Amino acid sequence: MTHSLFAVTLARTPLGRAGRGTLSALVIGANAPDIDSVAAATGGARSYLEWHRGPMHGPLGVVGLGIVTAGVVWLARRAVDRRSSSSLARDNASFGMLVSVSIIGVVSHILMDLPTSYGTRLFSPFDWHWFAFDWLPIVDIYLLMVLVAGLIFSEVSRPSRRRVAAIVLALVAVNYGIRATAHHQALTLAPRLFGPLLPPPCASRENAGPLLDRWPRPAAAVETDSRRACLMEIAAVPTFFSPFRWRIIAQLSNAYELHEIDLLDARLRTPSTSGELFGRLSVRYPNQWTPATFAAATGARARVFLGFSRFPAARSFVDHTGTATVRWSDMRFVRSMSSLEAPRSQSIFSLVVRVGLDGRVLQEEFGR
Q1: H helices within 32-160, ranges in order?
Q2: CB 102 within 8 A of CB 28
Q3: Which helix (H) or strand (E) holds 186?
Q4: What is the pTM of this model?
Q5: DSSP class of residue 201?
Q6: Pairwise CA distance, residues 304 & 317, whole Å
Q7: pLDDT for 119-155, tens place per residue?
Q8: How far apart (Å, rounded) are the C-alpha atoms in residues 214 and 302?
Q9: Percent helix, strand and coil across the chain, each rounded to 5?
């Protein structure tokens, strides 16, 4: 819905002067990359994670979907004009213009996915890494409200449509600016939540800048010495309602520490505030990579899940028969800080793998 509303707003800027078909090209193009979601219906959770926000969100998808969208709109316009014998045919946008406009629609979709905590694979199929800015939740209610309000006002005041569209785009930019600034502030304040208990950085920690996040990281980044915890990464993930409330995820070598931070909390602005003040709000979630965990990671579904999951936390136990059960949960999508509930049953954000005594993967299930 957000992509469609943004495309309609773009159609009410000078882009709308490109000719008849512009609106359709923008709306279809803005939704076209999500055609890869069909994989969820045909191949289940594994195919969904493997292909969603993949090639259709990469360079080939931008060009290919732009051309296909333009072709669909151009052929539809010709069919309508033949049936109606309308004199408006001369106002139709050219095929080349429709391609350009459609590509703008596709690119707008990708650029709106990139600032979310879910992320997107910008360069697939050439590079399957995920990228994200972590500024917005998957659905931003404030962005939706601005776009819906703009649509309503532009219908009420038709002569001022372009002016309303300009105001809406400016408010969208302000929303992104507020989110980006709040994200930076949350990351800056995050170490204060831990105080002196924050462990030193791991030797294998990447020295990448905090602006654009990239994953999965090399397997060598997994630290296995549980006696000497070290800090691998700190991230700030947006929450649903407030742009000033963030979930802080500290990835340690043997666990995750989760905090929630409210940037409007007056205690954060007090110089004497220590990490102990907020320590009681933290939740620790174990991340134990045992030999069984490494064996489970070789499974087909596990490889796909670990390629998608940015913060996979592993727990494992062995039953009386010697069969090991390994469960991964993506810390971005735990439902509750208070009880640290794992994702819902049948969720794609958790995976259970059973491994036999000989190290063979016996069973893999999502959301169990």
Answers
A1: 38-51, 59-84, 95-113, 141-156
A2: yes
A3: helix 161-194
A4: 0.88
A5: B
A6: 22
A7: 999 999 999 999 999 999 999 999 999 999 999 988 8
A8: 19
A9: 50, 20, 30
